[in-house]
Amino acid sequence: MKAKLLAEREKDSKGEPEKKKSALFGFRQKVQWGVFVLTIAIGIQFFIYVYQASQGGQITVLRPPGVEGFLPIGALMGWKLFILTGLWDTVHPAAMVILGYAALISVLLRKSFCGWFCPAGSLSEMLWKLGRRLFGENFIVPLWLDIPLRSVKYLLLGFFLWVIIRMGSDEIHMFLQSPYYKLSDVKMLFFFTRISVTTLVVFIILVLLSIPIRNFWCRYLCPYGALMGLLALVSPTRIQRNPGSCTDCKRCTKACPYHLPVDRKLNVRSAECNGCMDCTLCCPAKDTLEMKTKGMGKRSWSVVRLGTVIIIVFLSSVYTAQITGHWKSSVTEHELIFRLKEIDSPKYLHPGIRGR
Fold this sequence. Notes:
Order of helices and strands: HHHHHHHHHHHHHEHEHEEHHH
Number of domains: 1
Distance between the termini: 70 Å
Radius of gyration: 22 Å
Structural class: mainly alpha
Largest sheet: 4 strands, antiparallel
Number of strands: 4
Oligomer: single chain
Strand order of the largest sheet: 2-1-3-4
Shape: globular
């Protein structure tokens, strides 16, 4: 009976509907590429900005606040300070906006920030798809090794949260106003432009592991993704499967980038689910596998609708931050030029390192 139902579903899915599904499969990738290219452009613009400032001459480009998306630890400190005192970090305010956006999306629409928006996640996906083309399939880490490896990102997240939780509001405020933090975005840039041999070797190893193994960085090491996954556990949105019309073809499980057993679940609640919706697109049985939000009745999310909401919420967050004065850094060009002259002095070491 299941085989007959599967044959009928596959027959119905041919032609125009199949072409439509192929187009939908590429929609998320278009969003990912758009954000990835934007991130590269922001990086190039910031490099030019810092280079011109370091020369002490005229600065012809604006500092892109979006670069602060790579300062999540400072953003976490900023949010704690805001919750305790109502003070908004003026040094790197965009970092708080971007982290807040990622958290909001994760709570509402699962870990879709990672599956749709994060440039590191997009790069990781590009690498494992390259590996699938090269080797025909991706390597699946054995369960006895996969589980302890997955705990690493939560341990890293736990360490950062433990440090921040122990800090009082005065201590956080001092850190956010410290010389180090005022140039932390430049320090982050130098991490890539002045890369050490050790860092380069580690980066190469991560890239090589990301080719045969799906989302190696995201699955095992990313504390940012760990936080978004924990927030997604309370999300009212999840993948739902109708066992009555399911054909047991297991295409959904094979398509899942995190190897989740979608074909055996009524609801996918895992913190690993990144809302990519690839499982729903590959399902041959109509209305069998859908992403739904509690309270929306029988309405389900389409790929286009989900992606559109993710983009609109981001643009709205940035626009709101801009018009309310919570987006642009208070570090002026004049101050940056002055501080860059002494950036290699002990004064600009991390306060924790400098205090040893």
